[in-house]
Write a structure and sequence with these properties.
With 380 residues, this protein is mainly alpha-helical. The chain has 17 helices and no strands.
């Protein structure tokens, strides 16, 4: 449901019990109120807000007046970006109709709006814009939402909403896959606002991005800083979990590097066995030009597996492609070596065993590297 539909529904539910109160002079107020509500339904927010406020001004004794004030205030606050006008209307409701069932809600909204209606009207408008972005961010194209948030930060460098806007930007950057930019934005908040309420979110976000970028020392530093300043048990547990996760991912990264080295060595040894079996590099190269039966058998099977992954499981398709390609490469290289050894009558059980061991090691190592790099299973 869109934010507009939600607001219309909320106002309708709040004030529906008043819709049947049409006795005496209230009939005109009710009719005017209904017209204002129709404008709201048509998307005419400014006209609806003005019409609601006029109901309260023209018929202050009507039972519709408190509801009209509240509806107008909600529109000015949530749709029109005018927290000052909203606060004025909430205050009028609380002062004029203290016994109204809406007075307590208006008082609560006044308390929330208090930081927004200080001496800087530009800051108040910026805060209202940011609140709209936070509420409707998922409905906007990511590029538009990010551009609006960045414009707020550039246009109001001393505004107290800058850290919240920067955190919003960092979240958009992370979801767009630009983890380096997100890390820089999170670190900016932690650096420029070290004592603010947003420090935990900034350091947590920076730690997560640092882990994703394999900058594990930086990640540990971010989480350790949370432990140094946080008193909240939940935040401390989250930081301790982040440190354990950074250390675990560092270990997995080292295992993946070792697996890559092992894979390179195994590949070189398989190539060396091929050259040794062929007697020369030229004969070995000629053997590679003829696909061995093992590769011919495996190729269509891996092809079907790759197609199935792209169609039915796109999230793992890249990993399947890499592992399947590695399997074909190993099978081709090992099969070519065994084939040339067979033709030259050099095939021995020890050579077959060596090929099998090296091929298994190479495939296992490539699986480990692939799962780590694609964040599937190993080290995920």
């Amino acid at each position: 449901m869109t934010s507009r539909a939600t607001l219309v529904l909320a106002i309708g539910l709040v004030f529906w019990p008043l819709a049947t109160a049409r006795a005496g002079p209230s009939a005109d107020a009710s009719a005017a109120y209904d017209r204002a509500f129709d404008r709201l339904g048509d998307g005419e927010d400014a006209a609806a807000a003005a019409a609601f406020a006029e109901v309260a001004a023209r018929w202050p004794q009507s039972d519709r007046a408190p509801g009209a004030l509240y509806a107008a205030a909600r529109l000015y606050e949530e749709k029109l970006g005018d927290p000052r006008r909203a606060a004025e209307l909430y205050d009028r409701l609380v002062t004029t109709y203290p016994a109204s069932r809406l007075a307590r809600s208006a008082q609560a909204r006044l308390a929330d709006l208090a930081p927004l209606v200080g001496s800087d009207p530009d800051a108040a408008r910026a805060t209202a814009t940011l609140r709209d972005l936070l509420a409707r961010g998922s409905e906007l194209p990511p590029g538009d939402a990010m551009a609006r948030a960045r414009a707020l930060v550039r246009g109001h460098p001393h505004w107290d909403g800058v850290p919240r806007a920067l955190l919003f930007i960092a979240g958009l950057e992370s979801r767009a896959g630009n983890k380096t930019a997100a890390l820089a934005t999170y670190l900016r908040v932690a650096r420029d606002y070290p004592h603010g309420e947003h420090l935990f979110a900034a350091l947590s976000g920076a730690g997560d991005m640092a882990i994703a970028l394999s900058r594990f020392d930086l990640a540990e530093g971010c989480f350790a800083r949370i432990l140094a300043v946080a008193a909240d048990p939940g935040q401390r547990r989250a930081a301790e979990s982040g440190i354990r996760r950074a250390r675990r991912q560092r270990f997995y990264a080292r295992v993946a590097i070792a697996a890559m080295v092992i894979a390179v060595v195994a590949l070189a040894l398989l190539a060396g066995l091929l050259v040794r079996s062929g007697g020369s590099g030229k004969l070995a190269l000629a053997a590679l030009c003829r696909p061995p039966p093992e590769a011919m058998f495996l190729a269509p099977l891996t092809g079907l597996l790759m197609v199935a992954a792209h169609v039915g499981a796109p999230d793992i398709a890249v990993a399947v492609d890499i592992i399947a390609a590695a399997g074909i490469l190993v099978t081709w290289l090992s099969g070519a070596g065994l084939a040339v050894a067979r033709r030259r009558r050099r095939l021995r059980p020890s050579l077959i065993l060596a090929h099998a061991i090296l091929a298994a090691i190479l495939v296992a190592a490539m699986i480990i590297v692939t799962l780590h790099e694609t964040h599937l299973g190993f080290g995920a």
